[in-house]
Design a protein that fits this description.
Protein name: Cation:proton antiporter
Strand content: 5-15%
Distance between the termini: 74 Å
Helix content: 55-70%
Number of helices: 34
Structural class: alpha+beta
GO biological process, one term: proton transmembrane transport
Strand order of the largest sheet: 5-4-6-1-7
Family: Belongs to the monovalent cation:proton antiporter 2 (CPA2) transporter (TC 2.A.37) family.
Keywords: Membrane, Transmembrane, Transmembrane helix, Transport
CATH topology of the largest domain: Na+/H+ antiporter like fold
CATH class of the largest domain: Mainly Alpha
Radius of gyration: 31 Å
Subcellular location: Membrane
Shape: globular
Length: 781
């Protein structure tokens, strides 16, 4: 007779009981998660009159797989682009609520006499809501379309992302319990660095590989490959000190941006549901009734802390974000529960041995209690708001109303602060230089030689890795230097003399940052001669920072990274456009502004045209000079570079020199044109009735008296001599009097691309000019 493994009978028992209990929960309109936990309680050792699971070790393994699959599924539903859609209110609300709840959990645990690490884990358990329970509650109550729900869903997105990284921090803190705080912080920082490098490389490699093999992949192969990526990244995460859940989440989020994501999600859903059910059942199996009874006071306290604390802190965060009191109260009461992430954190604490055994069943019970209370709280949130309005003094209500109006006004002014925009870009680019240098030291100079020790000559190989790290850092140095004098920098330089010392200081800081980054890599590789190190740092900063080749390579990597992240969005956008709309998309996103040349400014000891200088500072292109109703030397204006135009236009003796009354036509994106007009208005160089722009297609229909040109596209084929060359080396402007206004690479369109952008087969370039002059170039392409 065949011996049936206990795992099979255990699974039959678990799934049968789970099916019956969840059907009952569905009839009672309770969340399915509660049903699974109750099913686990029934088949666990606590209930003697129901058959009990025998092979608990195998069920634990299935439960671990369930966590991995749940996190992979969550990653498939999340993409980095979601962060750009949730908005500032959701970020502020989530950050306020999570930080205060972690602090409150730490305080409550300390008052109960628990250890610091156990109290920290408690704070993490109380800091995250349950997405599944909130969605179920909103659906049952029919309120998903109401205004406050948008804020709630935004907070859930931020919480889910933060929870994944909170797992990494807690696992590191738990593993390092008893170690020095500085050592724990250093370890977390080092692993975060590995994580960023790992994620960036994966985004560049994995979606690109899927594109190459998509024609040979059927559903079966795609599912197997996706699960392999999930398990592989989970194993790698554990290998470098993170939790397997984090690795699985990252695997899903990498695939989430690809066009295959919906297909993978549909194929993967049955597996996620099956193993997820086993995980939640295993949670219920670990609930010991005696532990709950012995700690009823703790259960009641934590349930009260969860409901009151989460409601209060979410409400506070929403008010700080400028939301109305009604929205804040409703959002706070909607988020007053904990759920599946709390189970995962509790299981992590138990596996690391840093939390007491009673905490797991206690936190599960608190989750069940708060989940059952959630519909009641949401249903009565309007009453709670009205009660609060009656209790608050009129002065407090007036203050909150003024804050809401101020937040709306601040949102309307967004983008007008040139200093803010410039500093934000500068610190981001400078941060990338530092990050790449640190990654080069940790990964290339330290980790790779250690892994290959004994197989390669160590000093020589370490030096080669250091050189590779310096080259990689040079990519980001080139990005910092080549884009340093565009847009905000130029406008700030021209606007106020007092801006210039700060701008010069930031430029010097960029040079110093690059110099010391090179020194850090060389020192980590064993260099000890200070004179040679200084010489190396200066040479690399000067050569790599100004390298057009490196900047071109950076732009290619940036395009691949962004395109892979946005692949599914780009595919949807392309599918929604007709052939005609796609052909005219670029033309409809370019604007022309005409200004009458009548303003000057003192620059470099001479009077310069303020209209022209501010236009160039805002990255606009001068398309035409119209004098007495006729264009001035149209062919020469179309062929000259921006720098040469700026020189000649400001020369009063030059035929192209701008005279008072000339009409200048500038071309740019909507954002560039708007920033130019706002800048001119703010400095009193333009009147309100003059601050108008028109779309390029409308401007071109005015006739040859204005601009005798059109917007046309050029496709780069594999045999084209342009393939592999940069825009500057082809010289579209000088050769055919055509301005490059957009570049498409792998469906990602970039407006006003850099001159160092390299063209590849399959790319498309949009130009504005006379197609007849460009006929030869079009034929070559």
């Amino acid at each position: 007779m065949q011996n049936l493994p206990p795992l099979i009978t255990d699974l039959a028992l678990i799934l049968a009981v789970a099916a019956v209990v969840t059907i009952a929960c569905r009839r009672l309109k309770l969340p399915l998660v509660v049903g699974y936990v109750l099913a686990g309680f029934l088949v666990g050792p606590a209930i003697a009159w129901v058959p009990t699971v025998v092979d608990t070790a195998s069920i634990t393994t299935w439960s671990d797989i369930g966590v991995i699959f749940l996190m992979f599924g969550l990653g498939l539903e999340f993409s980095v682009l979601k962060l750009t859609t949730v908005g500032r209110p959701a970020v502020v609300t989530a950050a306020t609520e999570m930080s205060l709840m972690i602090a409150l959990g730490l305080l409550v645990g300390t008052l109960l006499g628990w250890s610091f690490v156990m109290s920290l884990f408690l704070g993490g358990m109380l800091a995250i809501s349950s997405s599944s329970i909130i969605v179920k509650t909103f659906t049952d109550l029919g309120i998903k379309g109401q205004g406050f729900t948008e804020l709630v869903f935004g907070v859930l997105v931020i919480e889910d992302i933060a929870a994944v990284f909170l797992l990494a921090v807690l696992s590191t803190a738990g593993a390092g319990a008893g170690a020095e705080a500085a050592d724990v912080v250093l370890k977390i920082g080092r692993m975060a660095l590995y994580l960023i490098v790992w994620f960036a490389l994966s985004v560049i490699v994995v979606p690109s590989a899927l594109k190459r093999i998509r024609d040979a992949v059927n559903d079966e192969i795609l599912l197997v490959a996706s699960i392999a990526l999930c398990f592989g990244m989970a194993a790698l995460a554990v290998g470098i000190g993170f939790s397997s859940a984090l690795g699985a989440f990252l695997a899903g989020s990498i695939l989430a941006g690809t066009v295959q994501a919906p297909r993978i999600a549909a194929l993967f859903k049955p597996l996620k549901d099956l193993f997820g059910a086993v995980f939640f059942v295993s949670v219920g199996m670990l609930v010991a009734p005696q532990a709950v009874i012995d700690n009823l006071g703790t259960v009641a306290l934590l349930a009260a802390v969860t409901v009151i604390g989460r409601s209060l802190f979410c409400c506070l965060g929403a008010l700080l974000a400028g939301q109305s009191l009604r929205t804040a109260v409703k959002a706070g009461l909607s988020l007053a529960q904990i759920g599946e992430f709390s189970f995962i954190i509790a299981a992590l604490g138990t596996s690391l041995g840093v939390t007491a055994g009673f905490l797991y069943p206690v936190i599960v019970t608190v989750s069940v209690v708060t989940s059952l209370a959630s519909p009641l709280l949401v249903r009565n949130s309007e009453r709670a708001y009205r009660l609060l309005v009656r209790l608050l003094p009129a002065s407090a209500l007036a203050f909150l109303e003024r804050r809401e109006e101020a937040a709306e006004d601040e949102g309307d002014d967004e983008g007008e602060n040139l200093w803010r925009d410039y500093l934000k870009r500068w610190f981001f680019k400078a941060g990338l230089v530092v990050l790449c240098a640190a990654a080069s030291v940790e990964v290339l100079v330290k980790m790779v030689p250690r892994l290959l020790r004994g197989t390669v000559p160590e000093p020589l190989f370490t030096g080669a890795m250091a050189a590779l790290g310096i080259l990689a850092t040079g990519l980001f140095m080139a990005n910092l230097f080549y884009t340093g004098r565009k847009n905000e920098f130029g406008a700030l330089w021209l606007r106020r003399r007092r801006n210039r010392p700060a701008l010069i200081a930031l430029s010097a800081a960029g040079v110093a940052l690059s110099f010391f980054s090179v020194l850090a890599i060389a020192y980590a590789a064993g260099a000890d001669n200070l004179a040679w190190m200084v010489l190396l740092g200066a040479a690399c900063t000067a050569v790599l920072g100004r390298s057009r080749t490196l900047h071109s390579l950076f732009l290619k990597l940036e395009t691949s990274f962004t395109g892979n992240l946005k692949e599914s969005v780009l595919a949807e956008r392309r599918a929604s456009l007709s052939d005609e709309d796609h052909a005219n998309w670029v033309e409809k996103h370019l604007y022309v502004v005409e200004v009458e040349a009548s303003r000057t400014l003192k620059l470099l000891g001479a009077q310069r045209s303020a209209d022209v200088m501010f236009g160039i500072a805002h990255n606009l292109d001068l398309m035409a000079i119209v004098r007495d109703g006729r264009r001035v030397d149209a062919d020469r204006v179309a062929r000259l570079s921006k720098e040469e135009l700026a020189r000649r236009i400001n020369d009063p003796n030059d035929p192209l020199g701008v005279r008072e009354g000339d009409v200048l036509a500038f071309l740019g994106t909507e954002a560039e044109v708007d920033a130019y007009l706002q800048s001119m208005l703010k400095d009193g160089l333009l009147e309100e009735d003059e601050a108008e722009s028109v779309m390029l297609d409308a401007y071109l229909t005015r006739g040859p008296a204005r601009f005798d040109a059109t917007c046309f596209a050029l496709d780069v084929e594999a045999s084209s001599p342009f393939a592999g060359k940069t825009i500057s080396s082809i010289d579209f402007k000088g050769a055919c009097a055509s301005l490059v206004v957009a570049h498409e690479h792998e469906a990602l369109v970039r407006m006003k691309p850099s001159r160092n952008t390299r063209l590849f087969p399959g790319d498309r370039v949009w130009l504005v000019g006379d197609p007849a002059r460009a006929a030869g170039l079009i034929e070559q392409a």
